[in-house]
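ingest -> fold -> write
write: protein_1
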Amino acid sequence: MATHKQSWEQDYPILKPFRLNSRWYYPSDKTIKLLPQQTSFLLMNGKIGKPSTQTKEVSK
């Protein structure tokens, strides 16, 4: 029986350039998918905006 993983990632608009996991992200990239654990520092520093849409996969 196959198990389905739930993804709690959300799309966040990129406001200022920042580096995450050895990669640079720029405002021209528009949005980035992040887990809730990755967002607090970036939100506090104004690098990303509030989430635009919540993408949650539901297993059937």
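write: protein_2
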Amino acid sequence: MVNPAHRVITGAHYGLRDWLVQRITAVLMAAYTGLLIILAAVYQPESHEEFKALFSIQWIKIASLLFFAGLCWHAWVGVRNILMDYVHPMPVRLTLQITCIVALLGYLIWFLDILWG
């Protein structure tokens, strides 16, 4: 018999949701990359100031934020699944998961500071 508390801690039944998150965030990141390639081809920024001017446009900032948030979510799902599959001692796995969450949140805050700072 499976202990219900064990399911909550280990994250059982994330399969379909994880699969959808990975696919949706991958499509989001691919669309943003395509957009960035088009913008680079149209505007042809050659200096730091020109790139800075391009990323000062509000909708590009929002698209960049959505991209980076999607990247962090994509990374979290992947790392969490790897940890659940290959790191069996619960204290070690939870420590690594918390470390990953803290790092990803730190990266997201740093990205916000770069984008709007």
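write: annotation protein_2
The chain has a mean pLDDT of 91.
Residues 79 and 104 are 11 Å apart (CA to CA).
pipeline exit 0
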